[in-house]
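Late entry, guanosine-5'-monophosphate complex.
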Amino acid sequence: MLMDQEKKGKLFVISGPSGVGKGTLVNLLKIKHPEIILSVSATTRKPRPGEINRQHYFFVKKETFLDRVEKGKFLEWAEFAGNCYGTDTAFVEENLNQGKDVILEIDVKGALQVKEKMNTAILIFIEPPSMEELKSRLFKRKTESEEEIQKRLAIVQSELNQKNKFDYIIINKYLSPAYSELEKVIYGNDE
Ligand code: 5GP
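Prediction complete; structure with ligand written out below:
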């Protein structure tokens, strides 16, 4: 039998269209379960007001990002609405090897790359209740320009078309039941 410290952690990948509420769900998870490890991605996107380097993202130049791609540092990476985003392999593996569960909050293309590399990863798709609701959330959060929102909306259908490749689909109509479902997927029924 494996000793506790030899037991690997589980990798959970939370994905879904921009504006669906992934970030809110993940923030709640971190508040309720501070021990859970959230991977901080690298991105070439400019920080939004209030975003802190190393806490929300590692904000890097495109050349730095591409250098890391070339050196094989990313477990997965993808271009999303004109910017690059990637997950650091070493960070994820170190934590999993220490028996800690790790959460990735990444786009759909990235999630599917993770599954190909690590088929034990648990993929969770957060689905909007409707396109109308998603649009309204994206406009209300006021973090992107109109042009940026249109770029994000243009890819929603292709993202929704991939949802059946995920292990779980959670519809985020109301935050509280969606959060409970997410918690159940991650922690089972021992809550
Ligand atoms: P945002 O610009 O709104 O912070 O993120 C845009 C999209 O990129 C979101 O769907 C977010 O989940 C995704 N994303 C964030 N980090 C990563 C990453 O490391 N890899 C991939 N593939 N997507 C990411």
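The pocket of guanosine-5'-monophosphate is lined by residues 18, 22, 41, 45, 76-78, 80, 85-87, 105-107, 109-110 (CB under 6 Å). Will revisit in the morning.
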